[in-house]
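User: Fold this, then the next.

Assistant: Folding the first:
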Amino acid sequence: MLLPLLGWLMAAPPTAHAQAGCPDVLLGDSLAVGMAPFAQAQGFEVIARNGAGIAWLRQQEPRCARRLVLVFGTNDLRGMRNEEADQYLRQISAVMERWPAARIIWATPGCFNRDAQLEQGSTALDRVLARRVNQADDALRHLPAIHRGREARCTYESHDGVHPTGEFYRSWWSTLVRSMERTQVAATR
C-alpha cells in the first residue's frame, strides 16, 4: 500500500513555472506565525494565522510554490484518537494535492507536556504517521513529506507549553529548510 500522504508528491511533475517562477511559501497555524520572521528573512512568503485548523487550510487558495513548508495540525489535535488521526491524514493530503509545489514538507505537531488532550492527539497522529511510513513502498521512503514533530520537537523551551521560544523557532526553521534541501522529490529530479 502506498503512503496516501506521500501520494500527492508523486503526482504529476510540477510545471517549469512552479519550479522556477514561484515563491517559496510557509503555510500554517500559530507555530508558522512564530517562525515567520526566519522564513521571511530567507525570502519565503508567509500565509499563517493563529488558531488555524483544517477548515482554514481548506479555504486557502492554492498557489504556485517552489518549496512549500506546511507547519500545521496543533489546533485540530485536541482529543484526537487513532481513527480520527487516520482521517486527518487523508484530509491534509486532499488539501495539499491542490497546491502546485515542486517540493513540500509537512512539519507535524510535537509534544504537549502541559495539555493531556493535545498530547493524546499528537500521540495518535504520530502513531498513525509511523504506521503509514512503515507500510510505504521502499521507493517512497526518501521523500521529504513529513518532519515528525514528536521526533523533532519534544524538548523545547516554552512559556505556554505549545509555542517555542524565538531561539527554538529559528533552530526548527533551519532544520526544516535543511531537510528539504537534502532530499529531492522524485518528480523534480
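Now the next one, as you asked:
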Amino acid sequence: MKQIVINGTLRTDLGKKATKEVRKNGNVPCVLYGEKKDANGNPEAIHFVVNEKEINKVVYTPHIYLVVVNIDGVEHKSIVKETQFHPVKDNVLHMDFYEVVENKPVQVAIPVKSVGLAEGVRAGGKLMPMVRKLTVKACYNEIPEKLEVDVTKLGLGKSIKVGDLSFEGLEIVTPKEVIVCTVKMTRAAMGAAAAAAKQG
C-alpha cells in the first residue's frame, strides 16, 4: 500500500460562514476520526483544512494510499473514509479520514485488475469488467494496491463472482453474488459458433 503525506491546519471555527471562507481560499474542510472516543463513545473528530491541490493528489489517482495527515506538525496515519464532491463543478467539497492503527482491521475499496487472456476472448467474446473495486477488510499493512483476478479459464458467457475469489490475509466484504467480470458473446463469436454448428 503506497503512502502519501498531506499537510493540514487545525480548524476551530466550524460555522457555515467559516466553511464558505475555507473553500473560497482554495482549501477543503476535512475531518479525521481518531481511535480515541468521546463521552458518548463516538470516535473523536479532529477538524482541519487542507489545500485543494494537496487533496487532489489523494482523490484523482488510481492508487490506494495510506494517507499520513500532518496537522500542525502532528502526524496521523489514516485512510480516506468518504469524499463529497460538488454536484456541478465536481471539485472536492469535504473529505473524511479514518485514523488507522497497526493491528486493527480497516475496511477499504481496492481496485480490481484482470490477469490473463480468457478462453472466451480467444473464442471471439469480449471481457466485460462489472466492478472497478472490491471492498475488503484487513490490517492496513496487509492491504495490496490492487486485487488480481485470473480470467484465463473464463469461457464464453461465463462470469466470475465475488464468491469465487479469495485473497490471503483479506476478508472480502463485497457480497458474494456480485459479478466481478464476464465474457460477453459478440456477433463474431455467434457467427463462428453458427458456422461450426453447420459444419458439424
